[in-house]
Amino acid sequence: METATKPHRVRMTPAAVRVLEAAERLFYDRGIHAVGVDLIAAEAGVTKKTLYDRFGSKEQIVVEYLAGRDERWRGVLDGRLDAAGDRAAARILAVFEASRAWSERYGAKGCSMVNAHAEISDPDHPAYQVIAGQKQWMLDLFTGLARETGARDPDRLGRTLMLLHEGALVAHGMGVFPDPFGAAADQAGALLEAESPAAGEGPGR
């Protein structure tokens, strides 16, 4: 797979921060296409000229919105992974716990990347790189951790863990049933036990 080019980022000034904070609230609550620059500028208390001077386009605001959430998520996740210790299985389960904590605080309407992809599916859109890159990073994380467990097929296990995680994100955002992250973590734990090297030895070996 080719490495995606990193999206262009802008330097944050105080006015740019206000614009981005307003845009994040509006994009996440109402959707990207439903929110125009007039509303963002009004909510941020800046003129449209200032908005365009800082970002150049609405598309760049979307890039900053998604990239900023991704950076904060990775920071939260890094803390949980560090606290989980050195055991790969514990670190895998910590991802689900981190997502539960993140979603309860920042993600009542589900994953911002999944939500954004429903509106931005054109690979040429500058924000598409952020969306696809974040999901590829998560898959690489799960696959790397699966490999550390000594699983017989770490690529397959990594993909399955990713599916459990993404399903939990969607179920949480839609309110399908209580605590989808706990349910996904339970299934992940069962998978880890089944995929462990010891599980394939069989009795008497």
Automatic annotation (TrEMBL):
Residues 13-73 form the HTH tetR-type domain. The keyword DNA-binding applies. The keyword Transcription applies. Keywords: DNA-binding, Transcription, Transcription regulation. Residues 36-55 bind DNA. InterPro entries: Homeodomain-like_sf, HTH_TetR, Tet_transcr_reg_TetR-rel_C_sf. One of its GO terms (molecular function) is DNA binding. It comes from the Bacteria. Pfam families: TetR_N. This is TetR family transcriptional regulator.
